[in-house]
Each structure stands twice: as structure tokens, then as C-alpha cells.
Amino acid sequence: MTSLVLASASPARREVLRSAGVEPVVHISGVDEDAVAAALPAGTSPQTVVVELARAKARDVAATAALPADCVVVGCDSMLLVDGTLQGKPHTPEVARARWTEMAGRSADLVTGHCVLRLTDGEITAEAVDCSSTTVHFAKPDPDELDAYIATGEPLQVAGAFTLDGLGGWFVDRIEGDPSSVIGIGLPLLRRLLGDVGVGIAQLWSHPPA
User: Fold this and answer.
1) Could you tell me if 171 and 162 are in contact, meaning their C-beta atoms sit under 8 angstroms apart?
2) Do residues 53 and 33 make contact, with C-beta atoms less than 8 angstroms apart?
3) Do the Cβ atoms of 168 and 162 come closer than 8 Å?
4) What is the DSSP letter of 89?
5) Rounded to whole angstroms, what are the CA distances from 180 to 7, 14, 65, 118, 136?
6) What is the pLDDT of residues 13-48, one digit of tens each?
7) Catalytic residue positions, numbered
8) pTM of the model
9) Element housing 29 (H / E)
């Protein structure tokens, strides 16, 4: 049976896969995301940035982790594109507040790079990459709501300083595109990329999807 290895520490990505019938093997990459992004040529498109970050994560895990003999390694990277500028994790309350001040009541695009590597006996035999983009329409949290949200710590460690499937979902009016991509791993795109490396999604199901 082919195993899916998720090169991510994200509980949200893991739960998306589990809800879709796949129990991933989790290995966290040691990639320095800032260094990878900084090494890209000036003017690199936002879509290419997230794809290259996803590729770096997947290849790091493929090179360093003890993996099943027959597996696919999936790397992902998400950022929020606001006025042409990519925004990753804010990390601090001050940056999270500034981000929300900028995006409240507006729309932005959540772009997620995906990389799928097919491995057989430790060797990469195929690779497929692509990017998904979903437009997110944000509400305007009241000042007290925003204070409370930032105090939870949730927005500090997620791309764009919000979640769709957590507390941040209260402040998203609507989206245009794939909800799973906003959570961090787009199932429709992942299915296509898996097909590109010769893996059918039913091969990965550990239990029938609910």
C-alpha cells in the first residue's frame, strides 16, 4: 500500500487529509523558509515562491527522513497575497494586528504551493508541483473581538493571520475557490498532482471517507 507522507507540522493539513480518508505519516521539514524565499530571483511571482517553498519542504523530508518503501511525500506552503505582497505567519501580536488592520473588510488571495514526490525504495521517481489560489473576503472584527482573537495566539502561527476552520472563521464573510486550500492543502489540486505521479487517491485511503 502506498503511504502519504506529509512534510508539515500543521494539524489543520493533517485533519483535512484524515477527514478525506487518508492517515498521513507526518515528518516535519527543517527547511529555513526565509532563506529559501530570499534565494529566489528578484521579481519571482508569488505563485512560484509558494511552489518553491513547498518543493523545498518535500525534498528535505525525502532526503532526511526514514520513509516507507512505497510512498508519496507532500509539501505545502501557504501565504496571503495582499496588494501584491505575500504575507506569511505574523509570529507576533503586533504584526498580526497590523495585518488585520490592513485586510479587515477587504479581499485577498490565499495562495498555496503544493509539491508531490513519488518515492520507491528511497529514490524520487516522479515529481509534480502546482499552486492553488482562493479569494478570501474578510469581515471587520470589532476592536474587542480583534483583541480577543489575537490574545488566543491562533493568528500568530498561521499564514495571513487567520484560519478558516478555527476561531478566525468568524471573521471570514465568504471565499471564492477551494475551502481545503485555504486550510492549507487543496484536495482537488492534490488529487490531480497525485495522478500526475501515478497514484490514484483510492490507493491512499486508510478508511472509507465519512
Assistant:
1) yes
2) yes
3) yes
4) -
5) 17, 11, 26, 22, 13
6) 999 999 999 999 999 999 998 899 989 999 999 999
7) 77
8) 0.92
9) none
